[in-house]
Design the sequence.
């Protein structure tokens, strides 16, 4: 089918290429000239036959908001916007409502698969109305792996980005679990072959997983990870997962611990731990004013 | 090679069978008659040619301790005991020392693979001296998967059980991560197809793993897990992992959160939360004695 | 000085009374007749001499929003609104801006002290402009304890509610700490006099505190807390504290653990723990399809 | 009454002094000459009239073990040893049993109060038999504050050190709670007067406590704690508290988080976070082998 793709970077460019290989008619637009087929969004819309399908695959936040807003002005009743970035799910409903006022549909799609997706297919999790999603079915079928799987219509608008967010939250927890296990083995002094241990787990064990495969590869390249610092960024999805847990009154201690560990990893010094140190100093009885401190030794 | 196998249950029995299929000469003993080849430990020792190899595959704790102790009396210089249960790693060194006094070797082996291991091979993580481990190499080669992998000599005595313990600690964290993600999706009211979401993640995503495969299967059988209670036992390995973290001064918040979540799952009511409730009651200013409580609303 | 007080409940009514005792001229309004001096907000504004000071002490959320909005219509340049409820600090700036458009000032005040505050004085933490805060100084001086202390001008608009929120977050952590200690002692079977232990800590120890005094009193009334269930509500401040931690990339594991413990206390069953139970079932090898489960015993 | 005091340092020396002021006959011994009344333990025992009371107030671990063992040789039936150090409670029962074989009693005492205890009195939490504790009552009465309170007979041998351990675990959680609140306020950029905020809380609020008094004093001396590093040691009691929680299947997330925060504060770099960084690198698709990595951006 015919489709406009906005954003032709590592993700959108590869997705457009895969769709073309599968016989779809893709008109591409990007802010940078080069791969783009049209010079402006307006031209993109003109080039597509109504009712149109436009897939937005640009960085989340401001860039996506600007594109979706502009599309709202350009598109017509019966068209559909697919928002494929890592958008916070709470932003989906307002966008959908704004478009709905003009009769334009909105489907949010969490996309997983990265640079290898072009070849292997992508995981696609979508939210939106049944009719809109069904109309897009040929596109989803071509994007997901050839042998089936990799697709879910998770619910109404916002559900696609919600489950992508939860997916990443789970990912945080799994990575942290391996990380804690690694540090334990290194610190123990007992385990003489830590990389070999992870490698041995890749077959037959309960923890076998793609993340373990990646860790095996990382340790093969750098057996004691000496070329890395333990400094870890966090993307929005981890924070949003914890905020959703708080909003929904769901205890999420492992995922939250994983997020906090990343926060701590980026601190040169901890303001909080300064307070604990200060309190221990005060216990020590060094200060000599009226209050009655307790000896540090006896806490 | 020749080997005595003590314990012919689900694990030991299958391991003995796999070893025999691979051409080893296995003499089996079990407390229950039936599959056993000899009636007593003493007879087992007599039947083996020195220097002997005896693999102990009985429940950890008292049963294992008793068998190893008895073997200490029966075996001779040059023999080797392989301890394959889920033993706390701190118990390995004392056992090895006791046996070493008689010139008997000791190798601890963490074994993973369960009922499917007979067919697919087992993951084996061992601790012990290089010579002892090398002598056992033909046994390990036959137990691990046919296409290689699944074996590590992790370090000296205790290292095998240590890494098996860490493996299980990581497993706790991974399971908890999936569990928190599930509850978030269920609680959200946004995700209309939770089983389908997990199913869709099995291909192409970062969280793909054997545990996710299992979860997919569980949700296929019981889509809202309505036949289960959220009551979860914990085996020793999770506790030992946290204790090792404490001993080694390693922060392990995600694994610990997973253990505590299991503890909490088994409580009908929480003593701790009674205290918090009591304190909030006190805030309410119902009591009328000298102290100056603060209004609950203004906390 | 002259002051309008909106909301004459347990908090506002007592605060009005304390201010009158200290010689201030308070005009009170409440939705319920009875204690109120005027029938409508409009009448309240008419009764006050410009430039006016109006203290809003009604439930946070909608009720406060409605009152502040209506005051925006009624008040004039040079008047000041003091918002004394447990408002989320992020709501303060928009309210202040809306009022500023008309030249009306806004000061947010976190108030602590509850039903005993009338007699003992209140803790007051305010955010707002220096001039506005200084103009209100006589009111703050009369509300805080007679012997000084209990007041801070924490920063610009929003800072008062922010620090009140943090205060309550800390309170969550302290309560949880005592609660965990209590459960440990009860579970140990070693401590035969738990109430007596808490009581003994009230003098001379590091943990002595008003919360400990309250706990001592609660245990005196009900030594094993048998009349309570471990079911604990959470007010907004705990959640907002965690959300602020996430927004600010500050690790706050103890406060977050306290919040999650409250969430868990209110669950009859845990969806998350059902997942862990389901996974352990799958390990057990009961299912008979293609995948290769690992024995639960060997996990 | 008559009493031998072993260990005349900051704790034991002051306690001996307080007891003498209250009319007790104290014979002191220390490894260092100076304050000691006798040159050897043996002389100490000779100087006391049977049945004797000997209070051991030396560093926990090896020093205490050595002294108690030596006393076992020197003392006679009917004598009592009081062990006042910060001993792990699990060590108490074996010591008591060893002494009981000779008819010597054993009482464990957790002591709080530090350098100010001589003047203000100490908090004393004891474990032991009723008769032994009653015989020591005059000593406890003199050590605790003059206005009563500060004493509990918590249970049998070990209970005194158990509750002192829990006391310190609670202390960890309280300190961490204040610390997290401090960091939140500093990071917010909203709170312009953090020291003033803590100071204002010292009167009338729910979090008022001796630790808050200490924090107020610390911030008065160094308002932004710039002279400190966020590097915090941990004493055994925090670790033992978490281990007890694990042993007793009691969830203790806040206290454990406090312990782990201290562990993390002492790491120059985190091995665990290196693993997370390595995994994120692998996502990035830099490696070029067969596996199918997912794009970091799309996680």
Sequence:
């Amino acid at each position: 089918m015919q489709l406009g793709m906005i954003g032709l970077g590592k993700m959108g460019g590869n997705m457009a290429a895969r769709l073309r290989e599968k016989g779809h008619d893709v008109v591409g637009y990007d802010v940078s000239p080069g791969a783009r087929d049209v010079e402006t969004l307006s031209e993109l819309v003109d080039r597509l036959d109504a009712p149109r399908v436009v897939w937005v695959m640009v960085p989340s936040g401001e860039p996506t908001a600007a594109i979706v807003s502009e599309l709202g002005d350009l598109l017509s009743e019966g068209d559909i916007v697919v928002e494929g970035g890592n958008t916070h799910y709470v932003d989906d409903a307002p966008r959908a409502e704004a478009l709905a006022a003009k009769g334009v549909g909105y489907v949010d799609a969490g996309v997983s698969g990265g640079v290898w997706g072009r070849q292997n297919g992508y995981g696609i999790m979508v939210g939106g109305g049944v009719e809109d999603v069904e109309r897009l079915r040929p596109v989803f079928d071509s994007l997901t792996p050839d042998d089936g799987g990799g697709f879910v219509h998770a619910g109404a608008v916002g559900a696609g980005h919600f489950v992508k967010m939860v997916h990443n939250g789970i990912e945080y927890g799994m990575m942290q679990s391996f990380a804690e296990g690694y540090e334990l083995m290194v610190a123990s002094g007992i385990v003489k072959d830590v990389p070999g241990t992870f490698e041995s787990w890749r077959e037959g064990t309960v923890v076998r997983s793609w993340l373990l495969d990646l860790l095996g590869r990382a340790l093969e390249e750098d057996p004691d990870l000496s070329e890395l610092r333990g400094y870890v960024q966090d993307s929005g999805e981890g924070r949003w997962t914890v905020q959703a847990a708080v909003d929904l009154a769901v205890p999420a201690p492992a995922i939250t611990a994983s997020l906090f560990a990343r926060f701590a990893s980026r601190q040169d010094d901890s303001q909080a731990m300064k307070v604990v140190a200060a309190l221990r100093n005060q216990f020590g009885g060094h200060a000599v004013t009226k209050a009655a401190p307790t000896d540090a030794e006896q806490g």
Q: What stands out?
A: The beta strands of chain A are 2-6, 25-29, 53-56, 80-83, 105-112, 123-127, 151-155. Chain A touches chain D through 75 residues (CB under 8 Å). The first strand of chain A starts at residue 2 and ends at 6. The radius of gyration of chain A is 25 Å.
